[in-house]
């Protein structure tokens, strides 16, 4: 490759890097704005179901709402395509996969599944950037929740478990927080990786 080709290659790389930094700065500003709406103290009137020795759930006659419907959300991506035709069809996409939502009735002994839905990703080009996972996955999961709301589904979750970090995040505002604020629903983040070890250690010293 001559110097002209090297120069153009370098220009494209610099342009891509500059664009990525600009996107991260924009996303960081959005995170900061949404974080101002984050509620970190429990303020819901839930009463937890009490299991009996028979395996049934005892519902006490007290003021408050029984915590009954707990949802879980996740987005998974396909790394392998089943056929050459599928590979050709997906050649122009950055990723393909599936967003899913499941709701359980936690007052039943078997945690009965009362609702499940999914959303297929066939043309997905939002990049994965560490600590900005919410901008890749939150819009997908919001569609699933909004679909339940639009149909007045009686099993809409009171609490949502999210495959991603919440407060244990470099800026204290991970996917679980992001989704909770936008959907106006209490969430618990269940991250597979610890991205803020110092904050985790502080929590541990506080509860012990």
Automatic annotation (TrEMBL):
Skewed-composition ranges (Basic and acidic residues): 1-14
InterPro entries reported for this sequence: Endonuclease-V
UniProt-listed Gene3D superfamilies: archaeoglobus fulgidus dsm 4304 superfamily (3.30.2170.10)
Coarse class of the protein's main subcellular location: cytoplasm
Region (Disordered): 1-22
Listed GO biological process terms: DNA repair
Compartment list: Cytoplasm
Protein name: Endonuclease V family protein
Keywords: Cytoplasm, Endonuclease, Hydrolase, Nuclease
GO cellular component: cytoplasm; nucleolus
PANTHER family: ENDONUCLEASE V
